[in-house]
Each structure stands twice: as structure tokens, then as C-alpha cells.
Amino acid sequence: MVEWINTPGLTPYPEALAFMENRAAAIARGKAEECIWLLEHPPLYTAGTSAKIEDLVDPDRFDVFEARRGGQYTYHGPGQRVAYVMLDVAKRGRDVRCFVHDLESWVIATLAEFNVTGERRDGRVGVWVTRPDKPKAADGSLREDKVAALGIRLRKWVSFHGLSINVEPDLAHFDGIVPCGITAHGVTSLVDLGLPVTMADVDVALQRTFQTVMQKNVTARGKCSG
After folding, report:
1. Cα–Cα distance between 169 and 82 in angstroms, integer?
2. Average of pLDDT values for 181-196?
3. Would you name the residues annotated as active-site residues?
């Protein structure tokens, strides 16, 4: 069983981090169920274990937190659906690469519920969309923007941290960092893409697609979903 928690309002980051660490430890001890926590944060930046200080362009803009997850700098704030995943990776095959691949597949399936084609890109973490409505890049290729970010940590084969989908955040808030260390591409949101999508709509899609993408691999050990 996976417990779903949906917290209204804005959750302070230290509170979320403490909850995740405690819940992950309890799951590892067999004392708690797996958990997906849906929430929003006040505007803030987080630094992953690979963050480079030069990518923090405006350090005084918002609070900056050491996330202790994989990845670099990212932004969290109102209008962004954060899904923290406290899941037993051991029973999902003990393959971190496959687990991250499945999280990406979950996001891609969620976006497909709104007729948005999310894609992976080699060398770029997260989920991306092409923007034929925007000016092309200097090399003539279509512009690509990130619509969702991922970053996890494992402790005793239990995951925490997770993913974020930009529903309707203030995209200007990303200007204070180099998101995930990538300068050649932009950031977008579902509303920026012209979709009248609400946070509640995204929550329904996340729960529906979780069953088909993530849960089916609980017994399919070592197999990445498509």
C-alpha cells in the first residue's frame, strides 16, 4: 500500500525535509507504509549534491537550502506541484537507474493526460517539451524547455525527495539560478503552454498514472518501464 498525502497551502522546506527523512527511516524499518506527498513550497532554491556556486545567480533573492539530493540547483514555489516519493526501491528491483527512469515515465504519462508530449534528453535530467511556437535555437533546432525536474536520494534502499511539475509558477523566479546547471534551454509550465490546468487536475493525473507506471514494477524486479 502507498499512502497519499496532499497538503494544502505552502509547506516550509525544513519541515518537509524532516518529514521525509523520518518517514523513509520508518519505511526501511518496516514501521510505515510507502508514501507519496503532494505539496507546494514558498519560493526557495535548493542545492543538490552537484550544485555549483556560480549557478546561484541571485543568492539573496530567496532562501537557499542544502537538499542533500542528487542534482544541482532547482527552484520550488507556489504553482508548482511537488511530489515527494518515499518508496521502497528494494522491492522495485534495487536498480537506481531504472527507478529514475520510471519516475520520468510517470511524469511523461501524467503530462500525456493533458496532451502534452514530455520527453527525456540524454545528458539532461528532467522532462522536456519542444516549443515550435518559440524562436528556433542558433543551430536551427526547435527550442526545448523543461517542464518537470527530478532529484532523489536513497537511504537503506528507500527513496525520498522526488519530482516537481510546473503547473503555474512564476517562471521569472527561475532567473535567480541556472536550473540544473543548464544554460542553453528554458523553463516552461503547463499554463505557459496554453493549458488551463489546475493543481487538482495534475493531482488526479498523478494518482491515475502512478498505478500504471510505478506500481506495475513492484514485482517486475530490475525491469524499467517504457
Report:
1. 12
2. 84
3. 180
